[in-house]
Write a structure and sequence with these properties.
Helix content: over 70%
Oligomer: single chain
Structural class: mainly alpha
Length: about 130
């Protein structure tokens, strides 16, 4: 019975990393001409993999899902709401990376809170 649970846990983690890989490929390579960011998608993808692996080890089902949703959802919202500007030195600026990162972090925080609340609710129904 335990080996089935371990297999399911590993399969869930691998499937979330696979979905993240598809999201990463779309954001980093397919839509590169839209946003021009090379390093930011890489950084968020590495952080996402670490979060998914840790959450999978601790048998959390919510955080891996919200991590993938936050990655792709943050990208979509960043592309919708970004603005271009000029810094005081005359260089071009864009706030898409800030929007993407903020949505990503807030989605993970919401997942942590959601997991905590659902765990407490589940404990209250048992006792």
């Amino acid at each position: 019975m335990k080996s089935t649970n371990i297999k399911n846990k590993i399969l869930r983690g691998i499937s979330m990393i696979g979905l993240l890989g598809i999201s990463y490929w779309l954001c980093r390579f397919s839509f590169l001409k839209i946003h021009g960011m090379k390093q930011w998608p890489n950084l968020l993808a590495i952080l996402s993999i670490v979060i998914i692996v840790i959450a999978t080890i601790f048998e959390n089902r919510i955080i891996p899902v919200v991590t993938v949703v936050g990655y792709i959802g943050g990208f979509v919202l960043a592309m919708i709401f970004n603005t271009d500007g000029v810094d005081p030195g005359g260089g071009r600026t864009n706030n898409a990376w800030i929007i993407w990162g903020t949505v990503f972090i807030f989605s993970i925080m919401a997942g942590i809170i959601w997991g905590f609340i659902s765990k407490k609710r589940h404990e209250n129904t048992k006792g």
